[in-house]
Structures are given as structure tokens and as C-alpha cells.
Amino acid sequence: MARKKVRPRLIAELARRVRALREQRERPRDSQRYSLDYETRTRPFSGRRLPVRAWADVRSESRLLQLLGRLPFFGLGRLVTRKSWLWQHDEPCYWRLTRVRPDYTAQNLDHGKAWGILTFKGKTESEAREIGQVMYHDWRLVPKHEEEAFTAFSPVSEDTLRSVAYPPLLRAMILAERRKNGDASTEEPMLNLERARPDPWDYPAKQEAKRKARGTPV
Asked: What is the pLDDT of residue 146?
């Protein structure tokens, strides 16, 4: 019986998969990338030193997986927030954990990845996604008996005022400009108060885009 010939495309696809598996196996683990020398406050893998403003948090706060490693099932369904969010926003900001994948090569299982549904400034996203900056030392676990009070939020009604009259001098300048341009409109010039409301600078999606543009986080 003649031997069946293997198509070149199939060989190329197998070679691509082998290369991908080899790269995945040789890729450094999170416990290697984000390990920290607490005396020098330097990450040995990258050689980068933590910024000075993070030194106090390194001593007193925890990484996300450090918190979750102490909980049953790594805290699935629990709420976690960040110290920086508590300081900067009055509205509730938190993640509800849906999936955790710890790095089992880490000594205390204090590294890995986590996914959840984000609620930021009272607005909840519809789908779960990976939680960024899990290696930062500013994560806090919301106690179960405080979850209801922590998530309670009543949105403040926005002011219905959308436009106001210009100050007298600016109004006179606008009307003079109209007459100069031959505009016979008698409409009263009004100052529009509506403006675009961009996401805050610390919105996780914005920080994730900055991290990818900048490179590996410290």
C-alpha cells in the first residue's frame, strides 16, 4: 500500500503549533516576572526599581493574589477594590471575581491572573474580563458583611441646565461679528454647557492601553 503523502500546509501548521507551544513553555512565569526584592525594592527579572511613591504600599498593602490565596476557592464571587480608588472616588469601584488562575510555581501561590466584572464609579460593565495590575500592592478585599453597603449607589441627577447667556461684553462682540459678516440673525447667542465626559485617568481600560504602549509594568 502506498504511503499517504502529507500535505505541505499540514506540516507548516504542525510546525507553527510546535513553535507556539515551545514559546509558551519558555515564557517566564508571573512569579518570575513580578517577584520583588523587598530590601532593594527591585524586580530581579527586569532590574527595574519601584517608584518611591509605591514603597509605603509595598510594606503595608497586598497584591491581589496574596489576598485571594487566603480564601476558599481563591475568593470566587467576592468583591475586591483598590486603595487608590477608595481615596479618589466617592462612587463604588470594585471587581466581582469570576475566575482565578494562580501561578502554581509560585512559592505561596501569590502570583497569577484573575478575571471579573468591573464596576467603576457606579457603572457596571456587561462582560467579565481580565483584571489588570494584579501585581500592584494596593488591593483590598471587601468584607462579606460590608458588601451590600459598599455596592449601594444612587446616581446623582445631572443638572438640566444646558446653556446660559454670554456675559455682556462677549455677547456684544458676538453680535458685532455677526453684523460684520452680514448675518441678520436675531437669535440670542447662548453658551453651551454640555461637554464630553471622558473616562477618568485611572479607568482600568485606559491604564491597560498605556501599559501596552509603554511595555512591561514595574
From this structure: 93
pLDDT digits (tens, 9 = 90+) for 156-209: 655 555 778 888 899 899 989 988 888 888 888 888 876 655 666 567 766 666
Which residues fall within 8 angstroms of residue 117, CB to CB, at 6 or more apart?
A: 95, 96, 98, 124, 125, 127, 128
| pLDDT over 70 at 49, yes or no | yes
Instruction: Count CA atoms within 13 Å of residue 92 on its CB side.
Output: 21
Among candidates 87, 149, 144, 79, which has minimal Cα distance to 118? 79
| Bridge partners, 176 (sequence order) | none
Model confidence, pTM: 0.65
Distance CA 166, CA 192 (A): 10
Give CB contacts under 8 A, 24+ apart, made by 153-159: 153/91, 153/92, 153/122, 155/122
Bridge partners (DSSP) of residue 165 are 190
